[in-house]
Amino acid sequence: MPTSRLAVAATTLGALSATPGCDGCFHADVQVGHRAVAYVDRRFEDTTVTQITDTHIRIKSLIPRSTAPAPRLPDGFPDRNAVRLTDEDRDELARAYVRDPLLVGHEHVRASIHPVIVVGLPERVRDDLASWRQLPGSDRHAVRRAMTATVDDWYRAPVLPIGVMPSLARRPWLVQVRPRLVITTTTAAALAATPWPEVPVLSLLSRRSPSTVVAAELIQQMHTTPATPTEDHLRAALTPGHGLEIHAAHLPTDQPMPVTGDDTDEEEEW
User: Fold this and answer.
1) pLDDT tens, position by position, 118-158
2) CA separation, residue 210 to residues 64, 119, 122, 214, 267 (Å)
3) What is the pTM for the complete model shown?
4) Phi, psi angles (nearest 5°) of residue 249
5) Kindly report the CA angle at 192 between 189 and 196, in degrees rounded to 5?
6) To pair with 258 at 20 to 30 A between CA atoms, which of 10, 47, 79, 164?
7) Contact (Cβ atoms closer than 8 angstroms) between residue 49 and residue 58
8) Could you tell me which of 198, 247, 254 has the C-alpha nearest to residue 22?
């Protein structure tokens, strides 16, 4: 890419506009006694399901299943405090979702079931996302709630900017959740093993960064298989021109990823 400026925000908002596939997801298998997350009394709560009927589910109070999602928390998910939705956040989310303010908390939980994971330089990512807040038509819910997110904020934010790729060794529960897209913004992140081999990884690299050359050589050593889409619009998207180069490939999952040092100092200054 010629520059990384706003590239993260553009790809993130594009991913959020797509409807993720959700077939057989762990979060949908909710039974009495399971821990789940829901929006109750203007608070995002993690608590135990005590009753399920055809139309309602009880998590502290009885909420309608048709409008109020209650995704199941993964086994071993860390305990966390409830978070109250402020008037400012509620009004901003209502504008972003174009929904009644009384329902935006439920919509926010729904949008956060399959979040976008952005790996590498989280402070720069947050600045990039925040710069879109002043643009007409910007998707504010993708930036407001991304300012303090970590991977442990799953189900509470549709965008999770984190410093390094999360590992199953530290968080085994990651196998029971699935992001809609993983975006990497540094070469170290691009070469790190992902906990979700079935989820696409979009690596945003700039030729202005010397470490990109190293990353390209290492990726070639990984014996990737080029992806060749058959749809005309996807083929056109992979050859955009105008200074952009896009390469799509399948990464092998049966071999270790190359290991590189800290490339923070060599990355392009956004």
Assistant:
1) 998 887 777 777 776 554 444 555 555 555 568 999 999 89
2) 54, 19, 20, 7, 7
3) 0.81
4) -150, 160
5) 105
6) 10
7) yes
8) 198
